[in-house]
Specification:
Layout (H helix, E strand, L loop, with lengths): L45 H17 L5 H19 L8 H11 L26 E2 L10 E3 L7 E3 L8 E2 L11 E3 L7 E4 L2 E3 L10 E3 L3 E4 L7 E4 L17 E3 L6 E3 L17 E3 L6 E3 L1 E3 L9 E3 L16 E2 L12 E2 L4 E3 L2 E3 L8
Helix pairs in contact: 1-2, 1-3
Length: about 350
């Protein structure tokens, strides 16, 4: 087997970290049908659909790696943001569509790009070019170009069309297409991207393999999607190994990640929800430090990532909505806000005119 080229969907780089869990949705009654049949299902509410989406897109694959208090705070803010987005001027997405997307994601593996599933495909709105906007879903073009002042407002602009060039810095593409290619290449392209089945031809660009599979050429044949490599298989990259394993630098084989109590170091990582305790050099359950406190090893930050640089790493301060931030600096907006244009922004909170 030769290693397949590592590729990127640049349009989705900022968002894709979070994916999530199966849910036990409460059943709700409905009025009996006129003919006496089964009760008609009650229409889904925006709050219920957005809550379901949070569980599926966020909670499943981050549980154990986030402090419980942070998860609870993120849930409240995420759901509020999602509900508000449905009511923004020009938005055509409905609560039923949010619910359908969440249901489509439930059987998928962590790491799947939701926007590549038909039920979750990006959808354009009705606002004309040069109209003020918060998010792309309001715009007929599907693209809201945010202004530089960090207030969460932008203007609907026409993105690159299918087949046109794009870049990691300017990844906006027409609705239904994504900016694909190597981000350090001179040219990336807006293309329609889809997941292909196991055994089908792939290229890592517009024909992608689902999580748990890799695009690889075996014995000189054209590349196809094959099962990710299991423990003991020869590898060159962690991305080639199955979930819960890594590519060992020592053996060049896929190796199981450490369980609680196993020895660990920089070359022997621990499993999900664990970190390498700095004193015992064994895998231990993560604990969570507050802003300004020391972190590293099995001590993660309650919000954001552990600081790097000289001296003992510490957890960064949390920047509240609307306060100034530097995207390149080690600053943490309160989840799920992001640093845009020099300010921590929750996309739906600003009134854009």
């Amino acid at each position: 087997m030769r290693r397949s080229k590592r590729t990127y969907v640049a349009h989705l780089l900022a968002a894709a970290a979070l994916v999530a869990c199966s849910s036990d949705r409460p059943s709700s009654g409905g009025e009996p049908e006129p003919d006496g049949g089964a009760p008609a299902p009650a229409p889904v509410t925006a709050e219920a659909a957005c809550e379901h989406q949070f569980r599926v897109r966020v909670e499943r694959c981050t549980k154990g790696n986030l402090a419980p208090a942070t998860m609870a705070s993120a849930r409240t803010r995420y759901v509020a943001d999602c509900v508000t987005a449905l009511g923004l001027p020009g938005s055509t997405r409905t609560a039923d569509e949010v619910e359908a997307c969440a249901s489509a994601l439930e059987p998928e593996e962590c790491g799947v790009v939701a926007e590549l599933l038909p039920a979750c495909a990006p959808k354009s709105g009705t606002l004309a070019t040069n109209t003020a906007c918060n998010v792309g879903a309001q715009c007929a073009s599907g693209n809201c170009e945010l202004r530089a002042e960090g207030k969460g407002c932008g203007v609907c602009k026409d993105p690159a069309a299918e087949g046109e060039g794009c870049s990691a810095e300017n990844p906006a593409c027409a609705v239904g297409t994504f900016c694909v290619g190597e981000p350090n290449a001179s040219r990336m392209t807006c293309k329609r991207v889809s997941y292909v089945a196991a055994g089908a031809s792939c290229n890592g660009f517009d024909a992608q393999c689902r999580p748990g599979f890799i695009c690889a050429a075996v014995d000189g044949a054209p590349p196809v999607c094959i099962q990710a490599l299991d423990v003991g298989k020869e590898c060159r990259d962690d991305a080639h190994c199955a979930k819960g394993t890594y590519c060992s630098q020592r053996s060049a084989q896929c190796t199981k990640r450490g369980a609680a109590g196993d020895a660990c170091d920089a070359t022997q990582p621990c499993g999900d929800g664990l970190g390498c305790d700095r004193e015992s050099q064994t895998c231990a359950a993560l604990t969570f430090a507050e802003p300004g406190e020391s972190c590293g090893g099995s001590v993660a930050c309650r919000e954001g990532v552990c600081g790097q640089g000289t001296g003992a790493p510490r957890c960064a301060p949390i920047v509240e909505d609307g306060a100034g931030c530097l995207a390149a600096a080690h600053m943490t907006c309160r989840a799920p806000a992001v640093c845009v244009g020099g300010g921590c922004v929750m996309p739906t909170t600003a009134t854009c005119q």
